[in-house]
Specification:
Blueprint (H helix, E strand, L loop, with lengths): L1 E6 L2 E4 L4 E9 L5 E8 L6 E6 L6 E3 L7 E6 L4 E6 L8 E9 L15 E2 L3 E6 L1
Parallel strand pairs: 2-11
Antiparallel strand pairs: 1-3, 3-8, 4-5, 4-9, 5-6, 7-8, 9-10, 9-11
Length: 127
């Protein structure tokens, strides 16, 4: 079992950038693929990005591809999501999630594949 704590959300103008972080604690001896999901007001939670336990494989939703970058520092048990060229439609609560790795390249992309969730951090993009 792992615990996830996100940080880095805030208010930013359109076109700006933010870097979210997610600190993983608990049973970090298991390999975990790490993902970011987001949920906008009045909408369902959606997948944004995922990185494999090895860090060698990443995958992005089309809506964020080319603007967001997911990375991880396994020595610090931390996963990051760099948000660039932000748009008002990126406004959402951003959630970090962990999935037990089936391989070093495993990149799950659905909520049902996740084994643990953080409580979220709010990103608000003003126009």
């Amino acid at each position: 079992q792992v615990q996830l704590v996100e940080a880095g959300g805030g208010l930013v103008q359109a076109g700006g950038s933010l870097r979210l972080s997610c600190v993983v604690s608990g049973r970090t001896d298991s390999n975990y693929a790490m993902a970011w999901f987001r949920q906008a007001p009045g909408k369902e939670r959606e997948f944004a990005a995922v990185i494999s336990s090895s860090g060698l494989t990443t995958y992005y939703a089309d809506s964020v591809k080319g603007r967001f970058i997911i990375s991880r520092d396994n020595a610090k048990n931390t996963v990051y999501l760099q948000l660039n060229s932000l748009k008002p439609e990126d406004t959402a609560n951003y959630y970090c999630a962990a999935a037990r790795g089936r391989s070093h390249f495993y990149t799950p992309r659905t909520s049902g594949d996740m084994d643990a969730w953080g409580k979220g951090t709010l990103v608000t993009v003003s126009s």
